[in-house]
Amino acid sequence: MFSSFDPEYAPVGDVGTALLYVDSLLTRIREGISQADPKQRELIDEFFGSFSSEDASDVLDGACTLVYLYMEWLRQAHEEQDRDVVESVVPYVIGSMRKMTISVKPEAIPAMAGMLTASAIGLSPTLWRKQYGPWTEAEMNALEATLVLLADYINHLTNDETMAIRMIADIMESMEQAGDVG
């Protein structure tokens, strides 16, 4: 069935930068670091501050690509066990974000639930989200939390604390070797 939200019509974005950011967050969580080192925080702020609006948009598209790839992997893993990814993963992510009352605003959670569900049924989260206008500031933290929660879910499911990052890095490497990535 044709959909204008099909992933083949969506920009891939800057998956590498989005992946590096998620990896740094997961590393901080694993190491029990609640706050970034002030120097590291300054470097991160400087790095993202140097982005043009187009660069920032590319990273957002890359983050949405990560959401899609993680949900696709989780959908396949759940189907192998006759389980539904929407029934298992979406409530876990949404429930976890509802507990993050300081960093995730409640008004951003429905957008993440919709984006996860869209991804789970094979739609592009980038294109699905764009129909509602520009991203809001509240959605930035929610998207970050969504990515970390999905990656952590994959890591726990596989009992491998680097699986989610390595899986995407391997995909990127194989695409690069095939000449599909610039």
SSE layout:
Blueprint: H1 15-30, H2 38-49, H3 53-80, H4 85-98, H5 109-120, H6 125-130, H7 137-158, H8 163-177
Question: Can you walk through the features of this model?
Answer:
With 182 residues, the chain is mostly helical. 69% of the residues lie in helices and 0% in strands. It is built from 8 helices and no strands. The radius of gyration is 16 Å and the shape is globular.
Please give the oligomerization state of what you see.
single chain
Order of helices and strands: HHHHHHHH
Question: What is the distance, rounded to the nearest whole angstrom, between the alpha carbons of the first and last residues?
Answer: 31 Å
Please report the total strand number as a whole number.
0
Largest sheet: none
Helix content: 55-70%
